[in-house]
From TrEMBL:
GO molecular function, one term: dioxygenase activity
Gene3D superfamilies: B-lactam Antibiotic, Isopenicillin N Synthase, Chain (2.60.120.330)
Organism for this UniProt entry: Citrus x changshan-huyou
Lineage: Eukaryota, Viridiplantae, Streptophyta, Embryophyta, Tracheophyta
Protein name from the UniProt record: Fe2OG dioxygenase domain-containing protein
Domain Fe2OG dioxygenase: residue ranges: 142-247
């Protein structure tokens, strides 16, 4: 992609992501597109995933209902020690009222199937058996976390450290992201570059934007990428829904057999998924006591 110079929102270019069509009969083409994306930046679109547009719109409208509730109502479902519930600032939710909850329970099981379908293509792209991640200790009993996000419409200013969501990589296996039509997501393919080059990822109606998490980067011995991303506010209110997928907590994340050789030995020791995740949560989440103190 050509560099057109720094744009107003701090992005230097628009990135073009590969698009994986889950209804395609040409599995070789899907594997090749996905592999190229995972080696390059770990971000791609997934279309024809089997979740209807109507249903996605319903989840978005329930999300809007929740965020429009007064703060004191939202604080009643404040995030608990298991990281479930409302998080002020980087809003996170579950469970505000029955209607929303019913909607979310359905939503959670549907993307889980999409994640498994994507994981089969990832396995093939890593020269593993297609069902490698289907094992019970892996995605057979996947842990799925849904995060409803609301950006209130401020304009970000990276030069002042103001963002919708600051630069981060996701730490699980994969993330499925549904967004409304408002732009804002950016990726940085080389986190060590100085200066960093941020590229816009365009929203795509009906698609999930899928990205690989740090756990998969570690599992693949850094062959597949977990890429830094952030959200910049453009002045327009924005809603998105992130669905984070992790293997069962007993799963041992150990360099994949096809990702190591004498010349390229494992870069990390094996680690239990649970140990890895709890460390990452601790590193990246504010202490809950902070909110409790503010409430009293
Ligand atoms: O809202 C978005 O577009 C991205 C959200 C995100 O990256 C996250 O929640 O990890
Ligand atoms: Fe993220």
């Amino acid at each position: 992609m050509e560099n057109y110079g720094q744009s107003k929102n701090g992005a230097e270019a628009q990135t073009v992501l590969n698009c994986i069509d889950l209804s395609s009969a040409d599995i070789q083409q899907s594997v090749s597109l996905l592999k190229q994306a995972c080696l390059d930046c770990g971000f791609f679109y997934v279309v024809n995933h089997g979740i209807s547009q109507e249903f996605m719109e319903e989840v978005f409208s329930q999300s809007k209902r929740f965020f429009k509730m007064p703060l004191n109502e939202k604080m009643k479902v404040l995030r608990n020690e298991k990281h479930r519930g409302y998080t002020p600032v980087l809003d996170e939710l579950l469970d505000p009222d029955t209607q929303v909850r019913v909607c979310l329970i359905y939503f959670v099981s549907a993307p889980r199937e999409v994640a498994k379908a994507v994981a089969r293509i990832i396995a093939l792209a890593l020269d593993l058996d297609a069902d490698f991640f289907d094992k019970p200790e892996m995605l057979g009993q996947a842990i799925a976390t849904l995060r409803l996000l609301h950006y209130e419409g401020q304009i970000s200013d990276p030069s002042k450290g103001m963002y919708g969501a600051g630069a981060h990589s996701d730490y699980g296996l994969i993330t499925l992201l549904a967004t409304d039509e408002v732009a804002g997501l950016q990726i940085c393919k080389d986190r060590d570059a100085k200066p960093q080059l941020w590229e816009d990822v365009a929203p795509m109606k009906g698609a999930f934007i899928v990205n690989l998490g740090d756990m998969l980067e570690r599992w693949s011995n850094c062959i597949f990428k977990s890429t830094l991303h952030r959200v910049l506010g453009t002045g327009r209110e924005r809603y998105s829904i992130a669905f984070f997928v992790e293997p069962s907590h007993d799963c041992l994340v150990e360099c994949l057999p096809t990702c190591k050789s004498d010349k390229n030995p494992p870069k990390f020791p094996p680690i239990k998924c649970e140990t890895y995740l709890s460390q990452r949560y601790k590193d990246t989440h504010a202490d809950l006591n902070m909110y409790n103190k503010q409430q009293t």
